[in-house]
Records
---
Amino acid sequence: MTEVYELPCGFITEAGDKNDALRIYREDYGRDAARYTRKDVKQKLVQDIEEFEKKYGLVRRDPSTTESGHDYMLETFGRDLDLVAERVDSKRVWTIVSGDSNGAAAYIVPGYRFVNRIGYILSEKPFTDESEWFWY
């Protein structure tokens, strides 16, 4: 069974255990990976998007008014990013991040993130637990 793991640098991967997560990181980043050990790897509990919507609610907008054309995902540039920047400290900003080197897995994580970002989501309710993650 695979779980989701994160390293302090923002690297996220699915792996069988912490050692496997480190191995994947080292394969992708080589020598730079030597600075991390098992204690640096954090396991994440990941729930699905339906749970996210039930718990926090999605702020939906007219797709014609967003850079992405989506009703809830905001882009990482232009007026979408301006809207996110206005709310960075509100605890209602979530970042959609790529979770592996080929971009096949994506997660919704609390707060404004820059590394591996795909887009942003605004929630109706603020998050209280920064360790809560959701599948996207």
Note: The longest strand covers residues 42-47.
---
Amino acid sequence: MDKQENSLIQNFDFDIINKKAIITRCNTSATEVVIPSEIMGYPVTKIGIGAFFICKKLKSVTIPSSVKIIEQDAFNKCISLISITIPNTVEIIRKRAFAYCENLESIQLSQSIIILEEATFRECKKLKSISIPNSVNQIEEETFERCENLVSVELSQYTNIGENAFLDCKNLKSVKFTKFNSTLNTNKEIMIKRQAFGNCINLKSINLPNSLIEIGSHAFSHCNNLLSIKFPISLKFIESDIFWGCHKLRKVNIPEAVKQIRPNTFRHCKSLKSITIPKTVEEIWWYAFGYFYDYEKEVNIKIEDFTIYGYKETEAEIYAKENNFNFICLD
């Protein structure tokens, strides 16, 4: 080991396993760390579990292109870390790898990552924007939960979005689905899971991709400033409570592929005064639309002059009659 290599590794411990070097532990007083591509002639291929966990003074780390895996909790609670560049050789980032890095402002992700695991960037409160590589086919639960200053997200139209993935991102204004694909991402259909964008109170509009087939319950609940949403024709399943409490939502479209509108889907959407239901809808559940909830009186109240546009002898007409809503026939 030469002097230069020795100076580089003073800030961390490592193991050599199967002729590969793994970073195992950081000197907690380190402020800047440069990880070499080789140690004792062996390639550094992994940053181990919790290797930099609670290294509170760490401001800068350089990851070499030899690294392929960043293990769980690798940089968890590195509260002074400001930016990170992950080389394109990295294929796996495990759960909570950068969670609670509360001063992390910018991230450049590897173009080889397929999955962003659970809570990878949870509560990175200063993160403002993120461009997710087209290679990513899955954003798992809580990945960006409570990144409260995140303003914009760009991702592939073939990326599944897990439960609570962007929950409580209160400054999120823009979600852009790109049409570009990657040979690493083989998805053709995607889902947005439960509470994925729940409580994103500054999200005003979103154009969902044509690859989307299912939206989970509460996916956009309490998005108080959401004005409109355009469902793709590919959408087949709309779960319950998706838009609960979207007070400013005024315009929606129901695709013909949708067979059911589940309970409370548009409940408490006070600005939604009308809806058009295609004749292909076979079932409309209770309080699906046309109602808001009075929390003081603990009762459901009809939205005044709510109007349903639909077709004769369909679920739209039945729901309108059962709930005494205005019905305008499109036949």
Note: Helices lie at 3-8, 315-322.
---
Amino acid sequence: MATAEDYATWIVRNQNKKGTPEFRTVVSAYLQAKAEEQEDKDKNVGSRFMSGLESMISSGLTAFESLSDAEKAALDATERNRKRIEKYGEGANLEKLGRAYDESGVLGAAGEIGTSIPGAIAEQVPQMGATMAGAAAGSALGAALAPVS
């Protein structure tokens, strides 16, 4: 089966066929393939973990950059977020849940929730890990500097 990239290449190379049924068919196939590839990214636990990691790193970078130029830091953060979503997919969100409900009712929404939960948890693992590491380091440092007798 052709990928979205294959269809895109065909579209670019066949601009002279624009408006023909064949061109419209390929554009439709491209849009479908792109949507399926995005859906695959959204449900992949590894992608969700990496997305969470990049998001956490980006937040720290934005905080540091904002010390010198807050507006530029915000613009850079927006661009990093756009690239992260493009790379790893959107992840779980209420819009998808609403679409699933509209298209398939309660069972569709329940299915969307069930498939989104593992990815949503994986996306939070980097933040949870950093929090736990910070707590452990603080506990160890506190015990060393001010032991309780």
Note: Residues 44-128 form one domain.
---
Amino acid sequence: MTMTILRPHLAMLLLLCLAACAGLGARPSPPRVSLADIRVQEIKLFETVFQVQMRVFNTSDSALAIEGIEADLDLNGKPFARGVGRSRITIPPFGTELVTLDVYSSAMNMVALLLEAMKERRTSQDTLDRFGYRLQGRLHLGRTGRISALPFASEGNLGAGLNQPGGSLSPLW
């Protein structure tokens, strides 16, 4: 008799467990992020502020609710600038948006970059073509699921954007 009383409760418990597991969902596809533009925003005595625009591609079949972003920018394999900011934006499934972030570089990093460019004694376009970049960080998501942040990484050459129609990467000097 005890077994007949427990069966409905066990069945209900099993159904609740299955429903809870189904609600967790699969991990979203990692977003693709590329450097769209970089501009000098402010030069101070000890740091330079750059405004970086990143193109974020949502490769998932569900909307991507971004609350914030953190990023590190390396130039020629050396740490150059980093930033963190609140960027509340929702990217629709299989959609894309531009996200802007201020990144900060020390004056010493900026001087080293200028000296490296001057040492090469090349034209501005040649120098940009030689400057490889790596942009990496995390997109912080809204509190809608169990995943709180998605990592991203992108790399290329700074001059590549100048050769594209509508490309507008600002020279760094």
Note: The chain has one domain: 29-163.
